[in-house]
Amino acid sequence: MTQSTGKSTSTPIWQPVQTQIEQTRMWEFMQLVNQRFDAGLENYAQLHTWSITHTADFWSLVVENCGVKMTPEAAEIASAEVVDDVSRLPGAKWFQGATLNFAENLLQAASDKTLAAKPALIFRGEDKRRESITYQALYNEVSKLAAWLRQHDVQPGDRVVGVMPNCIETVIAMLATTSLGAIWSSCSPDFGLNGILDRFQQVEPKVLFVVDGYRYAGKSISLSERIEKVKANISSLQNVVVVPFLNSGGLHESNLDAVDSTTVCYASMMSELSPSVIHFEPVSFDHPLYIMYSSGTTGVPKCIVHSVGGTLLQHRKEHQLHCDLRKEDVFFYFTTCGWMMWNWLVTGLAGGATLVLYDGSPFHPGPSALMDLIDEENISLFGTSAKYISALEKAGVKPVNSHQLRSLRTIFSTGSPLAHESFDYVYRDIKSDLCLSSISGGTDIVSCFALGNPVLPVYRGELQCVGLGMNVQIFNDDGKTVLNEKGELVCAGAFPSCPVGFWNDDDNSKFFKAYFDRFEGVWAHGDYGEITERGGVIIYGRSDAILNPGGVRIGTAEIYRQVEKLDYILESVAVGQQWQDDVRVILFVRMQPGEKLSEDLVAEIKQVIRRNTTPRHVPAKVIQIEDIPRTISGKIAELAVRNMIHNEAVKNTDALANPEALTLFADLPELRV
């Protein structure tokens, strides 16, 4: 493969050669389309166009090619049953009459003699704790827990929830739940009490899985008190299963002081059960699988319901075709169980790969912790956040000089736009020969609108392509499709992972208001972006956080990109302040330890922004701040900051990882002049 470090975005920073392209599953899929439908496709752009104009044929072929287990099989399903009306969004019906089971699809490798004995899951803790489980052993553990849940009257459609770290037991609990046709929902143990209750009280779970505590940055945090309060405040709970995560000595005893008759210790309970053949409950394609939650910074989180079939098909398409995931791969994503990337990662089991689950700080005991993990576990697909890559560079880590990284062929980045300079850092200081795939989608669709692609070049600052089968466009304010212009990212045709709806939203009014109010029959995702003439995607930020000085729309990512070039700044947040019948841009900066913002540095920050963007982008004020509020999944809470500087209430501080940071933005004298 060849690569270039040229600064121009018109020059690829990495490009696969034809021999490697022809070995990818994306290429193989395109040849299959040509063979089956005489399509004459020669490149990805043509394949994408075919996928959105031959919707039924495309998704039927995904089912077949990705080995999705469904009854009846894809070949036996008529086109009209694949999707009844691709123009109806929302409300299109997919694979009517078909049944499937999510857990059965993820555990297929256990019935394959060549895969049953290979590791399915490897857990790594920040304290160097390591555990692994084979596909056959995973199947056995799921069978035991599924039998226990069935004995405790868990039925299809019941909710089972977890306050769990990213560990093997969490995956077992999810698989056991979904094997019964029940619905899984989770959050990470760093959620506060109100954050947990705001989510789980709405969905009225029957069973709760929870750890006694967790570790982060070398500290052990007990959940004992929080568990008791959760139990006391969710009246629907009939059973609580405690996983003694802090006790690494065999995990046989819980650290809880008080255990009542409805509470059991996971390890003790599982040791008394025997493996059996799992009865996978067949459910319809649109049967609920997951309930996920909006960030909740503007009120009680919305409960987003995702379907079994839609989630499975999207993830299999994305993993196998866009990620080139194979059973030989070791697949890692740095995530918690409160972020949709956990749900995305675990579907990798359906591809027969080995998944690495990590829990703890990515910088403990040092900034190279996850780079060490790549070498130690031979990770081939490594996923993380744009924030992590930026922080790694700021920490001065240069794995190209300190690590082997022989197994690594793809890095995924999401959570926020990946800066141009972060592309340079990856290829310069991590590894020059890999596919850097910046991807974008969200909890809303539990999948992606824009993805990586092993057959396409990588350009600085761009996501490689729009996902197959997704009619993604950029609309201007008049609802017209534009190219090479900024606007609203939308999806103009039905797609399988469109949510079933919101929980307890019987008339779908909240669901429609969230995505379909602006453009009739079109999903408006809430991202401000651009599609380039070569088919790449640029994300400039969230639409509701767009700055509007003098009526000119500016994406916050455009400012962050410039600020991140400056070594003395750790992170920043830009918001618009109402000022003299207009909006002025305010930039808050968090300085590196030992650095202090001076007039000279303010002038330099403004000069860098002006030189590389436009005068409109230059902040009216640059203010040093000690901390910046972020959501529990690590995203900067721009709207919360904007509310604070306008003396408006932040409705749900429990959605923030560090709500105490909000007080730093209240009544700042610099904002009164």
Mean pLDDT score: 93
Sum up the overall morphology in one term: globular
**How are strands sequenced across the largest beta sheet?**
3-2-15-14-16-17-18
Structural class: alpha/beta
Which sheet architecture does the biggest sheet show? 7 strands, mixed
CATH superfamily of the domain at 133-290: ANL, N-terminal domain
Describe this entry's structure for a reader.
With about 675 residues, the chain is of the alpha/beta class. Among the domains are: about 135-290, Rossmann fold, CATH 3.40.50.12780; about 545-670, GMP Synthetase, Chain A, domain 3, CATH 3.30.300. The chain is about 30% helix and about 20% strand. It has 21 helices and 29 strands. The strands form 8 sheets. The chain has a 7-stranded mixed β-sheet with strand order 3-2-15-14-16-17-18, with helices on both faces. Strands 5-4-6-9-10 form a 5-stranded parallel β-sheet, sandwiched between helices. Helix 3 packs across helix 4, helix 9 (about 195-205) runs parallel beside helix 10 (about 225-235) and helix 15 (about 385-395) packs across helix 17 (about 420-430). The longest helix is centred in the N-terminal third of the chain and has 17 residues, at about 135-150. The termini are far apart. Residues about 1-10 and about 250-260 have low confidence and may be disordered.
